[in-house]
Amino acid sequence: MKKTLLAEFTARQGAEDEVSRLIRDYAEKVREEEGNLVFDVYTKAAEPRAYWIFEVYRDEDAFQAHLKAPYGGPFNAALTPLIEEDASVLTFLDPLATTS
């Protein structure tokens, strides 16, 4: 089963450009992961400092491989002081069951 999540964080005022650069570089690396299916980065239209990252991985193993990627730790270490939250807020998503 696919592993789907939404990661959210808000760039501190004055850190917008650095956060944008960091997440763009990180997104390029994540999208190259064998098990990554989607890594879409959004900002809220009404709050451009607020980021939503929609992520989909092939399965739990692919997600675990993503967590162990060597660039994840340095990315999070660089991002943490630049955002308002203590860390990215992760929300795991399940598809809505449909009947046919």
Question: What would your notes on this structure say?
Answer:
There is one protein chain. Helix 1 (16-31) runs antiparallel to helix 3 (72-79). This protein has 100 residues and is α+β, with helices and mostly antiparallel strands. The protein has helices at 16-31, 60-67, 72-79; strands spanning 3-10, 36-44, 47-57, 89-93. The model has no long low-confidence stretch (mean pLDDT 97). A four-stranded antiparallel beta sheet has the order 2-3-1-4. It has one domain (3-93): Alpha-Beta Plaits (2-Layer Sandwich), CATH 3.30.70. Pfam families: ABM (PF03992). This is Quinol monooxygenase.
CATH class categorisation: Alpha Beta
Strands, count: 4
Number of domains: 1
Sheet with the most strands, sense and barrel status: 4 strands, antiparallel
Number of helices, counting only DSSP H or I runs of 4 residues or more: 3
**Architecture, according to CATH?**
2-Layer Sandwich
The whole-number mean of residue pLDDT values reads: 97
Global shape = globular
Q: What is the CATH T-level topology?
A: Alpha-Beta Plaits
Task: Return Rg in Å.
Answer: 14 Å
Order of helices and strands: EHEEHHE
Major sheet strand order? 2-3-1-4
Distance between the terminal alpha carbons, to the nearest Å? Answer: 20 Å
